[in-house]
Amino acid sequence: MTAVDAIGGHARERTGGPAPALPAPRGPVTALLFRRLAGAPDGRALHLDVTGADLGDADFQLALFACYELHYRGFAGVDERWEWDPALLAARAVLERHFEELLARDVPMPPLEGPRDVRRVLTALAADDRGPSVAAFLAQRAGREQFREFVVHRSIYHLKEADPHTWAIPRLAGGPKAALVEIQADEYGGGRTERMHSELFRATMRGLGLDDSYGAYLGRVPGITLAISNAMSLFGLHRRRRGALAGHLAALEMTSSLPNRRYAQGLRRLGGDADTARFYDEHVQADAVHEQIAAHDLCAALAADEPALAGDIVFGAACALELERLWAGYVLTRWERGDTSLSRLP
Predict the structure, then answer these.
(1) pTM above 0.85?
(2) Distance between CA atoms of residues 94 and 106, nearest Å
(3) Which residues, 6 or more positions from 284, have their beta carbon under 8 angstroms from its beta carbon?
(4) Under CATH, which number does the domain 115-336 receive?
(5) What does the alpha-carbon distance between residue 293 and residue 279 come to, in Å, rounded to a whole number?
(6) What is the pLDDT of residues 33-69, one digit of tens each?
(7) Is 267 in contact with 280 (CB distance < 8 Å)?
(8) Where are the domains of the chain?
């Protein structure tokens, strides 16, 4: 099945295929990285300089995203041995250190009195509705092209929904592990392909005339969109950040139901049918349950089991919500002035 995609500007076969092509470089860092990835690992050092890059720097965030993607589906034509190549891992570590420094600098941390205070702080963070609301805009004011742009942004994560948080399963034990497995089982459709949340999102993309191929829009989204996914991968791929990963997931689940109700409302206002809106309808129901499991059975229990992780649990939640606020500000600023929130094609 093929279709013309106005946002992407081209027609292509629709497929959820396992590996996308590398996108075009977004600057000198990705230009150097992608040149190396085009060949075989050869042991040479790779020096990636991201000095001065901020959280929204597209060149920096795309480079880090590409390094992480080698642990997911990889890229077509990229030698799979790059995944554990020592030179690339050393270069990735430089990017990660810079990213962690930026998060520590830019993400406000609420006071935490101790491990028993984790659930209260998570609840307070989730209830803080300061900042711009993309969900309200989509429900009431967005045009069809703006909603399509929103879906393009979300495709970077939703087409692999649940995967980054699944890294935590072998790193937890007892009750917290069981709680995470319960949430993830729902995310993966209880073993039924057609009910997997990533597959439901592909149906939303198809219903809006978008390319539902994995990674199709990687070259179109801004750096702050990539930063949202990179935070999940950073926390997921490092055992030392398992607390942050748990808190990150809790923040997503605890702030999901109302926005998804608004997304569904906006989509139906714009003529979306039941199949196209099913992804959002599913999250209204599922995440109302998941938020309790994530806050109490996962995070509060993890803090009780491993008190030293309490601060990182809260930090992970704060990162999820602050990156979302920064992303919302970026997108709405452009929409309010009648501009696109995506990178333009050359």
Answers:
(1) yes
(2) 18
(3) 257, 260, 261, 264
(4) 1.20.910.10
(5) 20
(6) 999 999 999 999 999 999 999 999 999 999 999 999 9
(7) yes
(8) 2-106, 115-336
